[in-house]
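From: lab user (bench 3)
To: helpdesk
Subject: output format question, protein + zinc ion

Hello, I'm new to running complex predictions and I'm not sure whether the block I got back is the full result or only part of it. Here's what I submitted:
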Amino acid sequence: MGLVMYDSTNIGDIPRDAAYVLAYVGGNPAFTQVPAARKRFPKARILGLAVASRYDAEGVDVEKGDVPNALVPGWVKRQLERGVHRPVVYTSAANVATIVKLLASNGVLRSQVRILSAHYNYKKHVCSPNACGYPTADGTQWTNRSGGHHLDESFLLDDFFAAAPKPKPVPVPPKPTPAPTPTPVPPKPAPTPGVVNRYLRITDKDGSDTYLPYTKLARLRRGIQFSRGKFNGLAVVNEKV
Ligand SMILES: [Zn+2]
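Helpdesk reply: Thanks, we reran it on our side. This is the complete output you should expect:
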């Protein structure tokens, strides 16, 4: 499939039914084509191409008399920062490898830009090692005399104008499992004033221990009688806490 895009220094030369139009941005006012292109091709997708690095646009024209290689990384980064999805770098097929390397050395990945190569072999193609031997482009301006006119024609990959993918929703982390409520540890019996630090450990027949303050009241509550140290054959021990 692929998409067909036209451009010309005279937009009047571009077919009226063009769906994709490349238009220059900046420079000589007579050279600023975007408003006129929008008017003439209201339904077309217009790709603005900056002819100097000081202009913001969707793409940049990297060739003699326009933007030099050295200014491309800065221009691309500026466009990325202002939200342009994959800014377009238009340059000759012979310059693509240099540009890609220069961008990479400035931290810009190949996938972050679209390469629109100019390769006038007059065969409708998108540059790639298999197609023509040049590095892989996203679109190629393959003729400067489309239909025998003074008209440039580019062939673009189907997804050339694909919108930026929507950001994936950030997964909500699962709520942490609440820590199990610790079983309350029964407090040690508080020392009874006046009988401080004296406790009885009564070991019952089932082996369980009970601590009681060493008071008459404790003895009565348990309903037991004991003499110090002995109770029905069970150990009665004074404990200090
Ligand atoms: Zn090519």
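A quick orientation on your result: The CA atoms of residues 22 and 47 lie 5 Å apart. Let us know if anything else is unclear.
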